[in-house]
Amino acid sequence: MSTHLTDPAELLDLVGENLGTGDWLQITQGQVNLFADATGDHQWIHTDPERAAAGPFGGTIAHGYLTLSLAPAAISEVLTIDNLTAALNYGLDKVRFPAPVPVGSKLRTTVTVRAARRKPAGLEAVFGLTFEVEGSERPACVADVVVLYR
């Protein structure tokens, strides 16, 4: 399921609506290592498969912020807006990481419109994202992501 809009203002009428669920994305050790290099977070639970095998998760896990960094791609996978000047990451209202993302697992994201309002700078939309790990009862991440459409 995906949502196609002509203009960002149409989000005002979609508050409370589910925009869709993206495709499954496999999380690889290579992605985790690149994220560790980019952020300087080389904690062994992310980057040392041998040590992590004996750790609390039975293997390496993705950084929570790696999962969260997939938010813009997750939104654009389920939402297309034709007449768009710019979509800016404006902030986060709430983020939680209820469950780990084991390396090798698959994630997908469901996106809903939590709020939308006109502002002097454009239209501000708050999207509720739920990152689901295949086979897990608990989500890996739930976040309210704020986007400003200019």
TrEMBL record:
| Origin superkingdom | Bacteria
User: Which residues belong to any copy of the MaoC-like domain?
Assistant: 15-117
Name the CDD domains on file: NodN (cd03450)
Query: What Gene3D superfamilies does the record point to?
Result: Hotdog Thioesterase
- Spell out the Pfam families in the cross-references: MaoC_dehydratas
PANTHER family (alphabetical)? MAOC-LIKE DEHYDRATASE DOMAIN-CONTAINING PROTEIN
Instruction: Spell out the family assignment given in the record's similarity comment.
Output: Belongs to the enoyl-CoA hydratase/isomerase family.
Protein name according to UniProt: Acyl dehydratase
